[in-house]
Amino acid sequence: MDVLVEGVHFDARLAPEDVGYKAVAVSVSDVAAMGALPCWVLLGVSVPADDAFVEGLTAGVAEACRHFGVALAGGDTTRSPGARVITGVVGGRCAARPLLRSGGRPGDDVWVSGALGAAGAGWSRSTPPDWALAALRRPEPPVELAVTLAREGLATAAMDLSDGLATDLARLCRASGCGAEIDSAALPRPHDVSVREATRGGEDYQLLFTASPAHRTRIAALGDVTRIGQLTAGPAVWLDGGDWPTVLFAHFGGAR
Predict the structure, then answer these.
(1) Rounded mean pLDDT of 72-92?
(2) In a 3-state reduction of DSSP, which class is residue 105?
C-alpha cells in the first residue's frame, strides 16, 4: 500500500494522469520487489467536491492497469476539505519464496536495476529538465526482473528503491544484520545526475537486491542491472570508504 499526498508526493509538475499512473505503479513496485506478479489494485481517492482532477486520475489509473496487467478491483471515494490524497493497494502472487529485506549475507554483491536519480532530480531541482520530469511522472518498476530473481533463486534479499538508496540500503542492511561498502563510481546515473542525487533523491522505484558472487554472470545477463558494492560483516554502511550520505527527506524528520 502506498499513499500519495498532494504537496508531499506530487504537485503541479504532475498532471492528474501522472498521479493516477503512479498510484498504481508505486505499489506494483513493492509487490514486485518481493518476487510477486501484481494482480489487482484497490484505490482510495479523497478529493475536494466536484473535482475535475478525478477524470484525469482515472485515465492514468487505467493506463497503469493495462501496462502492468492488474485489475482495478474496487476502492472508495471521499470528499477532502483540502489536499488530494490517493491510496493504492496492490495484491500479487509470489512466483516462488518471497524476497525479503532480511536475507542478505556478508560477502553478497549489492545490485540495483535501472539508473538512479533522474526522478529525484525532477522533484528537487527548481527547473527540472524534461528527462527528469519524465522519470518522476512515469516510474517503471522492473517486475519481470524481480520475478526472475525470485523464481531462479538468485537474490538473497531485495526491496524497491522508493525513498532513495541512502535510506533504503540502510534499511536492507539493518534487516539483514549486515553493513555495506558501495563504490560511487559504479552507481548508474543518467545525464548530469550527481552522486548526491543518485543516492538521496528517491522516487526511483527500481530494485535494490543482494546476491551471491557465484551468480554474477547469470544476473548480469538479465539486463539493465549494475553491481554497486558488497555487504560486509560490520554494521556500518560506507560510500567509497567514507560516511554514508545522510537522508535527504523523512516524513517526520525533515530534510538534512
Answers:
(1) 95
(2) coil
